[in-house]
């Protein structure tokens, strides 16, 4: 292979590795336009490891501090603090799902993903799934803020979140 051929191959590999999703995959959510063509500021979350294709998928954005992390949305909104939610019906098919959530301005935020399998819009510990950008095993405890933190630039921050579900006495973990 010529030197130019090698360079073109390297550029192709690097370019595809930087792509947030497979070509042609649809970005879901009411904020999808914020992630299109590197817009932003927003977070493009690639969701992997769904247990099934039932119910709804939800991304929630919180301030990046322990006091406000996972706080009731009404409390945050009344206090004028950052809170945003994007919810979509779980699409049919298989493979990862791309969801977008816009942020008010570049900075550090906490991000929560949930899979509301029964569609009741209330987290069911026994059947629903959850995940965070750090992808550390959740176990049986409340997730620490550090597992949810994500820095968002002027453009789009990309993250991959592996869904976790109750897995017996060990608590929450990815579906194998």
Helices and strands in order:
Elements: H1 3-18, E1 27-28, H2 32-35, E2 42-48, E3 56-63, H3 73-78, E4 84-89, E5 97-102, E6 107-116, E7 129-131, E8 149-152, E9 156-162, E10 164-166, E11 172-174
Parallel strand pairs: 1-5, 2-9
Antiparallel strand pairs: 2-5, 3-4, 3-6, 6-7, 6-8, 10-11
Description:
It is a single chain. With 176 residues, the chain is an alpha+beta fold. The protein has one domain. It is built from three helices and eleven strands, in the order H-E-H-E-E-H-E-E-E-E-E-E-E-E. Strands 3, 4, 6, 7 and 8 form a five-stranded antiparallel sheet that branches. The longest helix is centred in the N-terminal third of the chain and has 16 residues.
When the domains are counted, the total is: 1
Question: What Rg, in angstroms, do the CA atoms define?
Answer: 17 Å
Number of strands: 11
What order do the helices and strands follow? HEHEEHEEEEEEEE
Keywords for this entry:
176 residues, alpha+beta, 5-stranded antiparallel β-sheet, 4-stranded mixed β-sheet, 34% strand
Gist of the model:
This protein has 3 helices and 11 strands, in the order H-E-H-E-E-H-E-E-E-E-E-E-E-E.
């Amino acid at each position: 292979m010529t030197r130019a051929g090698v360079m073109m191959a390297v550029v192709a590999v690097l370019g595809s590795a930087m792509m947030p999703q497979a070509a042609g995959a649809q970005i879901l959510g009411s904020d999808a336009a914020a992630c299109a063509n590197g817009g932003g500021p927003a977070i493009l979350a690639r969701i992997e490891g769904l247990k099934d294709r039932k119910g709804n998928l939800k991304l929630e954005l919180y301030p990046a501090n322990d006091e406000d992390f996972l706080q009731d949305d009404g409390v945050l909104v009344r206090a004028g603090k950052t809170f945003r939610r994007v919810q979509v019906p779980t699409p049919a098919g298989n493979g990862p799902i791309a969801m977008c959530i816009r942020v008010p301005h570049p900075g550090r935020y906490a991000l929560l993903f949930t899979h509301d399998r029964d569609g009741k819009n209330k987290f069911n510990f026994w059947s629903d799934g959850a995940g965070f950008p750090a992808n550390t095993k959740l176990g049986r405890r409340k997730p620490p803020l550090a597992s949810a933190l994500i820095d968002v630039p002027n453009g789009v921050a990309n993250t991959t979140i592996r869904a976790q579900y109750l897995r017996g006495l060990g608590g929450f973990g990815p579906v194998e």
